[in-house]
Automatic annotation (TrEMBL):
Pfam families given in the database record: PEP-utilizers, PEP-utilizers_C, PPDK_N
Organism: Streptomyces fuscichromogenes
Taxon lineage: Bacteria, Bacillati, Actinomycetota, Actinomycetes, Kitasatosporales
Domain PEP-utilising enzyme C-terminal: from-to ranges: 543-894
A GO molecular-function annotation: metal ion binding
UniProt-recorded name of the protein: Pyruvate, phosphate dikinase
Catalytic activity, reaction form: pyruvate + phosphate + ATP = phosphoenolpyruvate + AMP + diphosphate + H(+)
Amino acid sequence: MSENKDLHAAKFVYDFTEGNKDLKDLLGGKGANLAEMTNLGLPVPPGFTITTEACKVYLDSGAEPVALRDEVSAHLDALEERMGKKLGQADDPLLVSVRSGAKFSMPGMMDTVLNIGLSDKSVQGLAKQAGDDRFAWDSYRRLIQMFGKTVLGVDGDLFEEALDAAKEAKKVTVDTDLEAADLKKLVTRFKRIVKAEAGRDFPQDPREQMDLAIKAVFESWNTDRAKLYRRQERIPGDLGTAVNVCSMVFGNLGPDSGTGVAFTRDPASGHQGVYGDYLQNAQGEDVVAGIRNTVPLAELENIDKKSYDQLMQIMETLENHYKDLCDIEFTIERGQLWMLQTRVGKRTAGAAFRIATQLVDQGLIDETEALQRVTGAQLAQLMFPRFDEQAKAQPVGRGIAASPGAAVGKAVFDSYTAVKWSRSGEKVILVRRETNPDDLDGMIAAEGILTSRGGKTSHAAVVARGMGKTCVCGAEDLEVDTKRRRMTVPGGHVVEEGDVISIDGSSGKVYLGEVPVVPSPVVEYFEGRMHAGAQDAGELVEAVHRIMAFADRKRRLRVRANADNAEDALRARRFGAQGIGLCRTEHMFLGDRRELVERLILADTEEDREESLRALLPLQKKDFVELFSAMDGLPVTVRLLDPPLHEFLPDITELSVRVALAESRQEPHENELRLLQAVHRLHEQNPMLGLRGVRLGLVIPGLFTMQVRAIAEAAAERRNAKGDPRAEIMIPLVGTVQELEIVREEADQVIAEVEAATGTNLKLSIGTMIELPRAALTAGQIAEAAEFFSFGTNDLTQTVWGFSRDDVEASFFTAYLERGIFGVSPFETIDRDGVGSLVAAAAKAGRATRPDLKLGVCGEHGGDPESVHFFHEVGLDYVSCSPFRIPVARLEAGRAATQSTGSDHR
């Protein structure tokens, strides 16, 4: 718990004048920032915030805290006194909005209700007070529509269909062309829908409206779409949401009113300028829903220069105050500007790197804070391919470049199909007129999102940017027909569901068919094909270069690569690897060498076995010479043979068929029969827990010593050639120190023989993989015989959980994730409580025995951003991962070393 929350544990409601931006845990992001803007003297409509603590009590018990109603009443009384009007009074009603506001932004995932306080009586007073019947009835129909869907659970399509019917009857296309009489009829129709679907009348008591709306916002924390979004963004499920009750200001009072969303910098590129959308005569939901196409924010200068100038000044104030890109919602009511929300804005990966370095150059933040403003996940996005500019593809449409990337897939027109096809292995593009929160499943499943409506602040754009999904919005020339599952492009060509399309989220272009892709410039930079400072490097590469250089200066963890050959090793070195943390020697036994392995397995005598090992030795030595040359001067950890031997033999079913066919045809099959007998002899019910790793080295005489000799001779050859080989020999799957002692004794003898024969001092270190629970629990003993530990977290996760990774991820992990048993797969991010606790305990025990024990990790967790932070915390020396994840690991190691709890840019 935060100190702030402890201090105010019994208080459930705060006026906007009481809070500040540091109370996000208690007031949620929206409430905390409304309070902060109020403190800054900006024009914020008065209101109050119900805390996340009240929400948690409600969700835990099913009832509001006892004190909540009285606190809300007291704050409502104060609000009414300040505004000089009563909630929902007949002659001049106070109206309020009820909005959600969690600690972390969850755009569109939870509920909002506007215009609370309107009723059959107060709508007349609002019309009189505003001097505008149309405005009053438009506000009333919006309330019934929102309240019916959000609070009473009425199908929102029923309201939309009634609205479409009203426009069709009037022969108009937009709702602003409906007159007061039309809207009055629509209100009657909406109330009938509520009665029929909810089994009750729309409530006329304004306090009942507000209380029910508050409960609905609490309950929206646990909707399916909110849970899915939290899982996707790794937001904890126990935070709850605050509720903000704010006096209404109206953007739908005519052409001198409107609503908009603004960004202090472009959230797609990071460039400074005037970015955002504005919609005249509208309420806020019209903008984010993408139902009506907006005008660029710059147009506001021509529409209402006074409000525009004031908004620009406020935006500068907020960016300098928050020292970051700010996302702002505002309303203009008859020429009066009101600020409804600000938050640190979501941004694309490229924008995150550019903005971080821009703010350093402006002196608003230092390099340490800049490093916290970017993430490894964002860097990974920047390494994705892009469309080939040299391709002859011609765009058939163009929309707003909402979230960059190159996405290719089959067009699908609803969320269900996107998920279904994606699970079948298809790559899809979700095509919609506009998205809404119910489309989240499909957006996650799709390679990219294309909409014909909406702008950079629409639901599709905001959510896509947050997820790092390619998105093109507002492609108005494309006619999307979701019912007929087709899209018509200019010129009349029809794209049917299943046709391949390509979308470019950086340019907004839409193409028919598959457009070829080329490597990202960021990958070219890491590979040394583009140098920072070069004329064609571009500001993105410069920004990445600056932040990576700072991360490398600050990080304590070294970063190695998982690589098994010279080509991968050289690539890893270009990507910044500081050695090889895992060379899997089993990958060297494939291809043409499989026959030699078969001979080894089939050997009937010691002489036959020795002959096979002698044949393998020079091949292994050649592998290691190439590897040590590629990584000269850097450590190379070579893991001795790990998988079960039967993996090098043919499939038992195929071999059985071959033997049976040969016998039926009376053809020679002696070798196949011997192979089949060997497969049967080596067959195990659970081979990953059977004869593999160190057990092979103990049961198959000469196998491990052949590999050790090959390593030693290769190292000696490199050293005599004036190279600097730094080989480390790793014994896999050790469960007890006695196993390691036996293998080590044999290895030390071989190394001594090679040193004597070559006249070299090799200084080869010998260690082990910690990948079994027993090894972790007896690490203090094992450290007596090991100079280093490398945690094999893939196998350790399997053995701790009792999971077979190859089976469980496809069988029940999806259900576990959906039901919240996992927040994320334990194979993707390390399980801190279980697997992580064993890693921490083993590291501590190992170093207690051997203080200079080198500690690393070589499972793919070594390239996972969150896991890298854990490995830093428990004091490992290095992480090792696949070559393309090395930059991510370097960045996250730097972030871990400079971690600031004050930074969280989800």
